[in-house]
Amino acid sequence: MAQRLSMLTSENTTADPELLRLAARIRRLREERGQTMDDLAEASGLSKAYLSRIESADRQPSVGAMFAVARAWGISSATLFEEERERGTVRVLREASVDWKGDASGVGLIRVGSGMIEGTYSERTRDDGHGGINPEEMVGAAEAGCFTMKLAGLLTHAGFPPVRISTQASLRGEHAPDGFRITRIELRTTTVAPGLSEAALKEHASRAKRTCTVSRALTGLDIIVEATLGE
After folding, report:
1. Would you list the domain boundaries of the chain?
2. Closest-CA residue to 129 (of 171, 98, 168, 96)
3. At the topology level of CATH, where does 17-81 sit?
4. CB within 8 Å of 178: residues ≥ 6 apart
5. Average pLDDT over all residues of the chain
6. d(CA 213, CA 67)
7. How far apart are CA 200 and CA 203, in angstroms?
8. What is the largest CA-CA distance in the chain?
9. Which contacts qualify for 157-162: CB closer than 8 Å, 24 or more apart?
10. Distance of CA 112 to CAs 99, 121, 138, 141, 169, Å?
């Protein structure tokens, strides 16, 4: 384990807005990478206590500490100081559209903004999967796709770049007084990555499930991951 660096500077007693923004940004970047405070301490050589003070804006971090964090993440130190987008603005990540024709027994055309996915759906395709897209299947595909990409990133960052990851999503549901609802998504993923242990895979898979964008959007839904090593 790398020797812990001692880089504490003066106490922050004035809650400097710039320091608060920096603290929030570092915390967000760490969480986006699925790292715990212990993980970042190990990767950067800084102590966990010191990193905790940075994220709580209790201390003004030194330039050396910022370089250590940036190196651990493979980014430039300038990235840590970039201004956040204005409060109240929302970035549009992706778009999708539906064109429905007819009454409840009609047919709809689903398109995603990129144009790569397009298809029709109706009450019949939702009930028995006959000849069309099922919106619920698209929820499963979105979760599986987001989770798999996140897992690939976490494994690569940890030194186990995967050769292949295969993920299957199964949706479970139940009838409720106000209609049918999805209650669970089960992900079964198989990963081929040289040197990766099953314990490490399960740990990274759990982080990927918690931190991928779609999982966060589905907060409150039970998402189960079964991760195994492949050959």
Report:
1. 17-81, 92-133, 134-229
2. 171
3. 434 Repressor (Amino-terminal Domain) (1.10.260)
4. none
5. 82
6. 27
7. 5
8. 68
9. 157/33, 157/74, 158/200, 158/204, 159/195, 160/193, 160/194, 160/195, 160/196, 160/200, 161/193, 162/191, 162/192, 162/193, 162/196
10. 12, 14, 11, 13, 20
One-letter amino acid of 108: G
CB 50 within 8 A of CB 166: no
The β-bridge partners of 185 are 171, 223
Neighbours of 65 (CB within 10 A): 23
37-44 helix and 63-73 helix, angle to the nearest 10 degrees = 100
CATH number of 134-229: 3.30.300.20
Measured between alpha carbons, how far is 210 from 34 in angstroms, rounded to an integer?
Answer: 8
pLDDT 10s digits, 160-200: 999 999 999 999 888 778 877 888 999 999 999 999 999 99
Which residues touch 66 (CB under 8 Å, ≥6 apart)? 77, 80, 81
Is there a contact between 54 and 86 (Cβ–Cβ < 8 Å)?
Answer: no
pTM: 0.62
Six-digit token string for 209: 């499930």
Structure tokens at 79: 């990235």
Q: Yes or no: say if 147 and 208 are a contact pair by the CB < 8 Å rule.
A: yes
Q: In the structure encoding, which two tokens stand for residue 157, read together?
A: 């960052």
Q: 134-229: same fold as 17-81? A: no
